[in-house]
Amino acid sequence: MIVEADGGSRGNPGPAGYGAVVRDKLTGETLAERKGFIGVATNNVAEYQGLIAGLRAARELNAETVDVRMDSKLVVEQMSGRWKIKHPSMQPLAREAQEVADAFGKVTYEWIPRERNKQADRLANEAMDAGNEPQAKAEGAKQPHWSGAMGEPTRVILLRHGQTRLSVDRRYSGRGDHPLTELGLEQAEKAAARLSKMDGIAAVISSPLQRAQQTAAKLADRIGLEVVTHQGLIETDFGTWEGLTFAEASAQDPELHQRWLGDTSVKPPNGESFDEVHARVRKARADIIARYGGKTLVLVSHVTPIKTMLRQALDAGPQFLFRMHLDLTGISIAEFYPDGPASVKLVNDTSHLG
Question: Is 0.85 surpassed by the pTM of this model?
């Protein structure tokens, strides 16, 4: 992947912000954007913060190698090891950047002229503009979250769909398009009644599968929104295990099924690995935040995509998937900040069913 990063300070030192873009190296497609206001700082501090944010975003996208492109000669030369890092304020930032970079197989650094770094430059300026807005100052938007995160988070309310006939028998239900049962419709109605009391929901976004669409429609109808469909929120493709119980899949492919239960890179026959789901959900999240950043959203999806998004918010390892349980119409909440950090506020709440 390619990381383009930039930072700026209006006054040097003065109000400062950074921007970073992650691109697909083959297609040039934008995979993620990051920006943040960091208060009063120098240009060089802002440039390093942009680099760190870009590297973290690439790590979240499971990049193996990264080509960093920046218009800061100082950061490129220092991170390449050709220039010494003498200034005390730069040393901890360079160490932090190197710690993130060490997670990749290979990282290269290239200086580019400012005209080739326009997207990252735009993001940095947007961050500085937002940080300087009078209302933002009055509301304390410049103050960091207790974790150090900056900016207005995107609040993601994750809702699992209601019951289907396959969930009654605890069968693998991936791409099969099954409707809700009568109980499932009742569960969806109760979840909608609860969520409709929350203020400020800007969008209801759903997996394309019928069970999720029906669940989403219950809420959308109550709050006067249309359901937006996103393909990236679809359930795992379980391949030939679709419709089987745990025991039936284990009997059909005992060795493969056992490996699949502990290794997220293993695929069901003709299916999709959890690693592939992870990358797909990461891209879906980036797409959704790029469109609705800073707003409150309800995402109606399935067990694996919801677990995956919670795992990403917690920056947890793959074993998280095998240790987390989600009930039908369970509600979870995660907040994703524009400079990269995230926090989980609620997990698998089903109090509306009581």
Answer: no
Q: Helix, strand, coil: what percent of the chain each, to 5?
A: 40, 25, 35
Residue 144 within any structural domain of the chain: no
Q: Are residues 174 and 241 in the same domain?
A: yes
> Which residues fall within 8 angstroms of residue 3, CB to CB, at 6 or more apart?
20, 21, 22, 23, 51, 54, 55, 57, 58, 66, 67, 68, 69
Predicted pLDDT of residue 145: 52
How far does Cα 17 stand from its chain's mean position? 21
Q: Are residues 247 and 177 in the same domain?
A: yes
Mean pLDDT of 193-204: 93
Q: Which helix (H) or strand (E) holds 189?
A: helix 182-195
200 with 320, same domain: the answer is yes
Which of 20, 5, 122, 22 shows the shortest CA–CA distance to 72? 5
Q: Which spans in 210-269 are helix H?
A: 210-223, 246-252, 254-260
Judged by DSSP in three states, 103 sits in coil
Give the CATH number of the domain where residue 118 resides. 3.30.420.10
Q: Are 20 and 27 in contact (CB under 8 A)?
A: no
What are the beta bridge partners of residue 9?
16
Choosing from 4, 60, 161, 230, which is the catalytic residue? 161
Tell me the C-alpha distance between 225 and 289, whole Å. 18
Q: Which of 4, 47, 235, 335 is catalytic?
A: 235
Q: Considering the chain, what percentage of its residues have pLDDT values greater than 90?
A: 77
Q: Which domain holds residue 117?
A: 2-138
Q: For residue 13, is the peptide bond before it cis, meaning its omega torsion is within 30 degrees of 0?
A: yes
Please state the domain count of the chain. Answer: 2
Contacts of 5 (CB under 8 A, 6+ apart): 18, 19, 20, 21, 47, 50, 51, 53, 54, 68, 69, 70, 120
- Alpha-carbon distance of 300 to 229, in angstroms, equals 9
Are 106 and 180 in a shared domain? no
> Looking at 108, 138, 168, which one is the last position of a domain?
138
Active site residue 161: yes
